[in-house]
Write a structure and sequence with these properties.
Elements (H helix, E strand, L loop, with lengths): L1 H13 L6 H13 L2 E3 L3 H4 L6 E3 L1 H6 L1
Parallel strand pairs: 1-2
Helix pairs in contact: 1-2
């Protein structure tokens, strides 16, 4: 899990778009387990390549 966290976090920090350690941990966990992140905070999670993200609140309003 720590290695996946580093693979998520390091490129974003280098690009100047860090997402914070807790969001990086959530993203890493989802990637390791092949899960989708359901959040209203797409701003950060959409920056993570290969991460499936859904915002059920936005889909309801659409």
């Amino acid at each position: 899990m720590a290695e996946q966290w580093a693979r998520v976090n390091a490129p974003l920090r280098r690009a100047g778009t860090p997402i914070g350690p807790f969001d990086a941990a959530i993203a890493a966990t989802a990637l390791v387990h092949g899960c989708t992140v359901v959040t209203h905070n797409r701003k950060h999670f959409d920056l993570v390549p290969g991460l499936a993200v859904e915002d059920w609140e936005a889909e309801e309003a659409a």
